[in-house]
Amino acid sequence: MRLSHLILAAAALIAGSAFATPADPKSGAEYQTLGTPQTTQAAGKSIEVIEFFMYHCPACNAFEPALLDWVKKQGANITFRRIHIPHLEQNDPEAHLFLTLDAMQIENAMHAKVLHTWHVEHRRLKDDADNLDWAIKNGLDKDKFLAAYNSFGVMAKLRGLNRMTGNYQVDSTPTLVVDGRYLTNPSMVEEANRASVTRENAFAATFQVLEALAASARKAQH
Q: What does the CA dihedral 127, 128, 131, 137 come to, rounded to 10 degrees?
């Protein structure tokens, strides 16, 4: 009896994985379901999508154009935001710059410029002095930048990033979380669909997963 039960269980697992596709993703394959759902910032029927990233991450930079295009096409259907995970244990300069620009409400406008500095100019922003120099060279007011950079709010968020990253179970970038409960990334999607998803089309397949997860989250609202 035990052997037959094992055979049936294995067959069920194989059957389930066989039908996993980016357009019809399965938990444990194309995405993971967080053990503890996180509070979202979306309003109304909009579904929150968060990109966890790092400025220096080559994969994040490669993902950026396609991600921006996808976000634009979603319009009011989603609420998109970014969270910079800390590369260093404490006082990570990249995350510190992100949080400062975010506090100044200019991160979206300056995002491409930071990526350009890292990936086109190949210039590392490795400490506070580099961040300040970058801000001044990119036309930001020195005093306003430093006020935000050293503010209590930014420093508190910087100290809490490791805990937040753990709450969302993020361990690589780029990673996306939908509705505070579903986690996915291009690597997971590619791994779950080796026969049909390659490195060249992994981004497009990831957006299929995101759309399916957003639709599932929206359906659960009713």
A: -120
Tell me the sheet residues that pair with 83.
52
Selection from 219, 220, 213 nearest residue 26 by Cα: 213
**CA–CA distance, 56 with 42 (Å, rounded to integer):** 28
Cβ–Cβ under 8 Å, residues 134 and 101: no
* β-bridge pairing 175-178 and 47-53: antiparallel
Q: How confident is the model at residue 91 (pLDDT cuts 50, 70, 90)?
A: confident
CB 190 within 8 A of CB 197: yes
Is cis: bond before 93, omega within 30 of 0?
no
pTM strictly above 0.90: no
Asked if 128 and 96 count as a contact pair (C-beta separation under 8 A), the reply is yes
What are the C-alpha distances in Å from 167 to residues 50, 65, 80, 86, 143?
13, 28, 19, 14, 34
| Spatial separation of the C-alpha atoms in residues 86 and 95, rounded to whole Å | 6
